[in-house]
Specification:
Number of helices of chain B: 15
Largest interface: A-B, 112 and 91 residues
Mean pLDDT of chain A: 89
Structural class of chain A: alpha+beta
CATH topology of chain B: Alkaline Phosphatase, subunit A
Shape of chain B: globular
Structural class of chain B: alpha/beta
Oligomer: heterodimer
Number of strands of chain A: 19
CATH class of chain B: Alpha Beta
Number of helices of chain A: 35
Largest sheet of chain A: 6 strands, antiparallel
Low-confidence stretches of chain A: 13-19
Strand content of chain A: 5-15%
Chain lengths: 1023, 473
């Protein structure tokens, strides 16, 4: 049933809340003392003056400090009222001063008996039940209480179109489709809204939306940060988060698994993956850095993040000294460090994609596809072999040609025996004897390939670089531009029982050379020069030959070691697929087409009758591989392509990701004096901060571990976790949390605006077994949430920030939602869930401008195709240069944990939406979809405008808006009819093809109109 | 007072911190202590603007500024343990078996009336010694680039704090309505093109509202990201579009009353003005040939240090509050003589031209210019030492910087190091002291420019920093 807040208000306005005039220590006094006195008279024993504490009851009751009921005997009052600057508290040089009203409050407090209260958030939430008769949703009862107390009136419910847009953006981060809006508008059932909410909660996009603030809190990124800022592979953890939200994992499980999934008995791979949470922090790799310094950083980061996310405490203050305001000592801090200080990790390790400890994660949905692909390849092979059987004659002729050919014109392709790569690259032999290079993609590499020299003579070595679909732009390397630089080529002969002998190379020759990068340069000593090719060409392969000074006469068991050096400054310019071949002559033709294994040649030269079964098979295989029968050629291409697809599937079917573990031998933890990693104080052991309620034994035979900590966080006696979590939910929907300082529930934080509501929500969360979706449902189905967000001058004056919620929430969307909404409304969005990060449009030169040595993220290579239109959750997050359009709209920078939203309103934001190709392309798509909706015949302007408008804003334009747009579209049309060339420029912005069914000037005019709509305040706002 | 009028004021020169006090309804949102904020500037400022020429990588003080003639006598001798005094090494040199003294191979001479000693690497700066104040006694806490640069820019080695430019923008606001208050520009050194990288957080706003983050001027295409209209959109059409957006937003404002809408209308107008102000700013065609020549040939190459220097002058001319240049490539672990020559060729002439230009236009009177990197370098050689080649590792214990312009003593040398340029002998200046001094010149008491975050009043200088009064005129 739809119950508006205003209706309930009408029934209940007679009731008056209790008179709140009595002084409350927590509400009125503690903030004054905390802000002005605790710095010298608080928790920090090192800074404490006059041995006086004002943060404890015991301290306040020290003789003569605070005497209940007696102002004249209380030194506290005397000191704060004093005219004598030497006697006055706080001292003038502290830059602190009490206001008259603060002094009044202190006086009244003493007169009323100076009652002390424990800090509110240290006390377990009380289960206050709201009066039942008020409304079906208890939230509304609590909100109404405060409204009545303040003499405020709630607002009516928002209109349906606004409401469905609001709740869709809040629960999925995407605007509703026109069909969804219409369905809701036409649904006259009593629970029409609840049906919408339930549909949204079931949407797979719910998990994506909920993941956004969680990734900010978890400081998730796709690079390691610090200077080098290399690529990292944490995205499987990100997908774990999305999945956990979609499956509605209870928050206590969500907590246990992310903090200590590895320590759960018989941990599943998914539980271990969850622990990636605490590997998301930055990892340094700067040359010259000291391991211990950064191990200390990582452990501290984990403590601070855990404290912010679960406890809402600013525990980082206690890293260098006892907390100035809250009851957290420096020892408490390092006892927490001890929980996180025992991982098998290194301090300076931010180089590879997944520094240890790590795990391999199998990605869902690939198993079947891989099996199907394998089957497809098998069938193709069968086909090709069948055909070989039917072409006996052709094969005989082919054997004859080879048998009579001069050996000099035959390149034999040896099958490598051993590979080594200094950059941890992996090698995969392909059908045609070439080698595909996989695994890590280091900046430089030295590869050692050992080849058999079964028999015969070798005087020329040929190196082929071949294209492959796994390489950049289907090119020759995994470098920025798909080109390579071979900085050195060496060969060594290994005879049985002899030490390796360097083979001298007389000359080198290549069929393609790039300016300043001749093949000859691969023979000199220096790493700065080498062989590179003209990238423009279309050839499938590029060849180079190396002629040896003296031919090698091979004996059985001899091998040749070829060393390929890639040591130039051109990063990752390593041939990605290569093939080596031998020829006995020094006059070998560079590109002689005869590609044969030595063994095949031997088989051909063997008399038919004497051929072994193995040799026969070898011949069939070789024939299949090299015959130019058109059917063979076509089948071979199909097999090759299918094979590449298979490799890609296998590649994508798993990923590595950093996780937590516990080292067998535990690392000792010490208090770091003044926070310095190399100034060690007393040794400490893992323990829960003593001032916080806990039932866990803090000392015992077996030391506490992360699982104990995680269990305590969600234990019934923990007063903070549930409050902190529901407060963040509240913040997501209403802009501010009930405790506005989301990150600080300590004494310096703000008091809750609705303490009873906060406590009720927290206890309800626990009562519902930490059901996350149920909590979201509870909030968005409240009448409070459903109010209209219109505001009048009077209410704005009284409650500018909407803390009392006499109106619905209205504030600018998160940066990711702004972009996603434009993509979704225009139909450009590719709604695939999960997977590796993507690189959409970004202004040129941002990565390059700050780039330095030895990083593998120095150049931004924009993706093509669907990756340009994925949700912003999947946009590649480089810490040194976060995505600019996100940062312009106040995204957290993901350097450290962040739980607080920020909202600014700047000219750069206007420029972003006005000019970013993302939004121009979305405007074009909006235009063409609105125009196309009614087929090829153009509709009336007013109806097209209404469709376009509703795609973005869900509601229909009012008459004023419609009139403006009707006049504008005429002007835009006129403009582009005078400037046809401009029209064709404008509609070509973005990579997606232009809708040719539409007249260019017409499309340009509507694109401009759509861009106006995307720039409206309402479009950027949750209303 | 509502946000709308609040923003209007902020573009007339009052900073956020000062304005926060006017915003009676939401004091805590800005986290500013009312009594402190109303008084910004806390006293009459000497400088209205800052140009900070950051030399990234750690310039070698003993090859540029800190003359150590005694070292020539002990070429290749070991650094005495008594001098090192337990100082930690980076892991780049901690494995070296010995630490041989590498005297600078560059000649030093005295210049100007002040008789300041400078290296032959800086012929142009040498002509202006009587305008600068050289500090030879800077010291810092970090020994690696990332934490050290972060410390210099934000007052903390850990990320998450606002940069000095952001603090300045927050405290003083902008006096130019069409340009951001804090602009930064990057350039690459020819001395070591393969250099240490930089990162956006160095000019970030940390926990301050994000409009205080530095606006990066780019050398590719648009000087400011997303500045230009898309292809096919001319300015008349853009104006018409903006009129539509404004009219519709006003309509919405009348219905909904949210002051954020009014602010958005203003921001769109500001964006439109930026679209013409920035191209005009980066267009050097109105500069005299003699001026351009003074900066050197590189001034014509967009994104070069020289070009950025001239842009810096044009920015402060337009009253942009804080302009920061980052020149990369000073991290010279090996082949220092060759690399530092390249760096000086990039920077010396243009730096001097900028100073001269500021003098000529009178801007130097109320503009503060700062030159320096994140730490110094060691007197001992990293890697092999020969008579004409050596390298130097990072050295946080002492290094040199200079300041010039508004309120700074001219032709002055402050602080002294030992014969090895390893330890400070007199007048040490900590990074926080330098930051306090810079704010002081801007009329800000560094102890009073605070922002409430996580329950604490944060400031640029943490709980440290003393103004270096000795270098103030």
């Amino acid at each position: 049933m739809v119950i508006t807040l205003i209706a309930v208000f009408g029934l209940q306005r007679q009731i008056h809340a209790a008179d709140p005039t009595r002084i409350s220590f927590n509400r009125d006094i503690r903030p004054i003392l905390s802000n002005n006195c605790f710095f010298c008279h608080g928790q920090d024993s090192a800074k404490r003056k006059a041995e006086l504490r004002l943060d404890t009851e015991e301290g306040q009751r020290s003789p003569g400090v605070v005497v209940p009921g007696s102002m004249s005997e209380s030194l506290l009052i005397e000191r704060v009222l004093s005219d004598d600057p030497d006697f006055l508290m706080p001292p003038p040089d502290s830059n602190k001063a009490l206001t008259t009203s603060q002094k009044e409050l202190l006086k009244r407090w003493v007169v009323e008996g100076a009652v002390f209260e424990k800090h509110w958030s240290w006390v377990a939430p009380k289960t206050t039940q709201p009066s039942k008769d008020r409304s079906s949703n208890p939230i509304d009862a609590f909100i109404l209480d405060k409204l009545i107390e303040r003499g405020l009136k709630p607002s009516p419910e928002a209109d349906r179109a606004t409401l469905i847009r609001r709740v869709s953006l809040d629960l999925t981060g995407l605007p509703p489709t026109m069909q969804e809006v219409d369905a809701f508008l036409n649904d006259r059932s009593a629970n029409a809204y609840e049906k919408v909410v339930d549909r949204l909660l079931r949407s797979p996009h719910f998990g994506e939306r909920m993941a956004l603030p969680w990734l900010d809190a978890a400081r998730y990124a796709d690079t390691h940060g610090y200077q080098k800022d290399n690529h990292r592979s944490m995205w499987p953890w990100r997908d774990w988060v999305v999945k956990a939200f979609n499956e509605n994992m209870p928050f206590d499980q969500f907590t246990l698994q992310q903090l200590a999934g590895d320590l759960i008995e018989n941990a599943t791979p998914s539980q271990r993956l969850a622990t990636g949470f605490h590997r998301n922090h930055r990892i340094n790799a700067e040359a010259g850095s000291i391991d211990e310094e950064f191990l200390a950083e990582y452990a501290a980061d984990r403590v601070e993040t855990t404290a912010t996310v679960w406890l809402g405490l600013t525990i980082g203050c206690a890293r260098c000294h006892d907390h100035k305001f809250d009851a957290i000592t420096q020892k408490d801090f390092y006892q927490l460090v001890a929980f996180f200080n025992n991982i098998e990790e290194k301090g300076v390790d931010g180089v590879g994609a997944s520094p240890n400890p790590q795990m391999k994660v199998m990605i869902d949905g690939y198993e079947d596809r891989i099996a199907a692909q394998r089957e497809k390849i098998d069938r193709l092979r069968e086909q090709i072999e069948k055909r070989a059987d039917t072409l006996i004659e052709l094969r005989r002729t082919w054997e004859q040609t080879i048998a009579v050919a001069s050996l000099d014109s035959i390149w034999s392709i040896p099958q490598p025996i051993r590979f080594r790569s200094t950059g941890k690259m992996e090698f995969q032999p392909l059908l045609d004897g070439s080698i595909l290079v996989k695994g890590d993609n280091p900046l430089n590499d030295v590869q050692t390939i050992e080849l058999p020299l079964d028999s015969g003579r070798v005087q020329t070595i040929r190196l082929e670089a071949l294209r492959h679909s796994s390489l950049t732009d289907n090119g020759f390397a995994r470098s920025y531009d798909g080109n390579f630089v071979l900085s050195g080529f060496e060969a060594e002969l290994n005879r049985p029982g002899e030490s390796p002998q360097k083979v001298r190379i007389r000359k080198a020759q290549a069929e393609s050379e790039r300016n300043a990068w001749p093949i000859q340069a691969s023979l000199d000593e220096g790493p700065d020069t080498g062989w590179s090719i003209e990238p423009a060409g279309k050839s499938e392969a590029h060849l180079a030959i190396f002629v040896l000074d003296q031919a090698i006469e091979a004996q059985a068991g001899s091998t040749l070691t070829v060393r390929l050096r890639y040591e130039s400054k051109e990063e990752q310019s390593i041939i990605g697929r290569f093939r080596l071949a031998f020829n006995p002559s020094d006059r070998a033709e560079l590109a002689s087409p005869n590609l044969q294994h030595a063994a095949v040649i031997a088989a051909i030269k063997t008399l038919l009758a004497e051929r072994s079964a193995e040799q026969c098979q070898q011949l069939v295989d070789a024939f299949i591989q090299s015959s130019d029968d058109p059917e063979f050629v076509s089948l071979r291409r199909k097999i090759d392509a299918s094979q590449s697809e298979l490799e890609e599937l296998i590649e994508r079917s798993s990923a590595t990701v950093m996780v937590m573990n516990e080292a067998a031998k535990s690392r000792k933890t010490f208090v770091n004096l003044r926070g310095a990693y190399d100034q060690l104080g007393e040794q400490v052991f893992a323990a829960i901060p003593s001032s916080l309620p806990h039932r866990i034994r803090n000392a015992g035979e077996t030391p506490l571990n992360r699982l104990d900590l995680a269990r305590w966080l969600v234990a019934p006696e923990n007063p903070l976790t549930a409050r902190v979590a529901v407060n963040r939910y509240w913040q997501m929907f209403f802009g501010n949390g009930l405790v506005k300082t989301t990150e600080d529930f300590g004494t310096q934080g703000e008091l809750p605006s609705h303490p009873e509501l906060l406590d009720w929500l927290a206890t309800e969360f626990v009562r519902l077994d930490w059901d996350v979706k149920a909590m979201q449902r509870l909030i968005v189905t409240s009448a409070t949430y459903r109010q209209s967000s219109k505001v009048n001058a009077e209410l704005l004056e009284i409650d500018p920030e909407n803390r009392w919620l006499a109106r619905g929430p209205r504030f600018r969307l998160a940066p990711q939602l702004i972009r996603d909404s434009a993509l979704a409304a225009s139909g450009l969005l590719v709604p695939v869930i999960g997977g590796p990060p993507v690189k959409p449009y970004q202004p040129a030169g941002l990565w390059e401008g700050v780039a330095g040595i030895n990083s593998n993220t120095t150049r931004y290579r924009q993706d093509a195709g669907p990756s340009l239109y994925r949700r912003s959750l999947y946009t590649y997050w480089k810490r040194a240069v976060p995505p600019p359009s996100m940062m312009i709209f106040d995204a957290a920078d993901r350097e450290v944990c962040s739980v607080k939203r920020r909202l600014t309103n700047t000219p750069l934001q206007a420029l972003n939406i006005l000019n970013d190709p993302t939004y121009i392309e979305a405007s074009r798509w909006l235009a063409s979809s609105a125009l196309n909706e009614v087929g090829t015949v153009y509709d009336s302007d007013s109806r097209t405008i209404a469709r376009l408008f509703r795609k973005v804003l869900a509601r229909s334009p009012d008459t004023t808006e419609l009139a403006r747009f009707e006049s504008s579209i005429k002007q835009f049309r006129q403009h582009f009819e005078q400037a046809r060339e401009s029209a064709s420029h404008l509609v070509r912005v973005g990579d997606s093809p232009v809708d040719t069914k539409l007249e260019t000037t017409e499309l340009a005019a509507w694109t401009t109109l759509a861009s106006v709509i995307l720039n409206l305040d309402e479009t950027l706002t949750k209303e | 007072m509502h946000r709308r009028s609040f923003f209007q004021q902020s573009s007339t020169g009052l900073g956020w911190a000062a304005l926060a006090s006017l915003l009676s309804t939401d004091q805590n949102a800005l986290g500013v202590d009312k009594t402190a904020a109303t008084s910004i500037p806390h006293f009459a400022p000497k400088a209205k603007r800052v140009i900070y020429l950051f030399q990234s990588g750690g310039p070698s003080q003993m090859d540029l500024f800190d003359y150590k003639p005694e070292m020539a006598k002990i070429f290749d001798k070991d650094l005495p343990d008594s001098v090192r005094g337990g100082q930690r090494f980076t892991t780049m040199t901690s494995g070296q078996s010995r630490f041989p003294i590498a005297p600078s191979i560059f000649q030093f001479a005295q210049h100007g009336q002040s008789g300041m000693w400078l290296s032959e690497l800086l012929p142009y700066t040498s002509k202006l010694v009587d305008d600068i104040c050289l500090i030879r006694s800077l010291h810092t806490e970090a020994i690696n680039h990332d934490p050290a640069v972060t410390f210099f820019q934000t007052g903390s080695q850990q990320p998450g704090r606002p940069s000095i430019g952001a603090w300045t923008s927050y405290g003083l606001g902008s006096e130019n309505q069409n340009l951001p208050a804090f602009v930064l520009m990057l350039s690459r050194g020819s001395g070591r093109p393969n250099c240490q990288p930089l990162y956006d957080r160095l000019w970030g706003s940390g926990f301050l509202p994000s409009q205080h983050q530095g606006c990066k001027f780019l050398s590719d295409n648009d000087p400011v990201a997303y500045l230009s209209n898309p292809p096919g959109m001319d300015s008349s059409l853009r104006r018409k579009m903006l009129d539509d957006v404004a009219a519709l937003n006003r309509h919405k404002f009348q219905e909904f009353g949210d002051p954020e809408i009014a602010t958005r209308i203003e921001q769109y107008e500001l964006a439109y003005r930026m679209q013409s102000a920035v191209p005009e700013l980066v267009d050097f065609s109105d500069e005299l040939a003699t001026t351009l020549d003074a900066y050197g040939k590189q001034v014509h190459v967009r994104g070069s240090y020289a070009s950025n220097c001239l842009l810096a002058r044009r920015l402060v001319e337009r009253d942009v509050r804080f302009v920061q240049l980052y020149h990369m490539g000073w991290d010279q672990h090996g082949s220092l003589p060759k690399q530092i020559r390249g760096q000086c060729l990039d920077t010396d002439q243009a730096t001097a031209a900028l100073l001269q230009d500021l003098k000529r236009t009178g801007l130097l009177k109320d503009t503060l210019v700062v030159w320096g990197g994140e730490f110094g370098r060691t007197i001992y050689s990293q890697g092999q030492l020969t008579h004409d080649n050596y390298g130097r590792d990072h050295h946080p214990r002492c290094f040199s910087m200079w300041m010039a312009g508004a309120g700074v003593k001219k032709g002055c040398v402050h602080g002294e190091t030992d014969d090895f340029s390893y330890n400070i002998v007199s007048n040490p200046v900590h990074v926080h002291d330098l930051q306090a001094t810079m704010l002081h010149l801007l009329g800000i008491d560094h102890r009073k420019l605070t922002y409430r975050f996580q329950g604490r009043d944060f400031r640029l200088t943490d709980v440290h920093g003393e103004v270096v009064h000795d270098i103030l005129s």
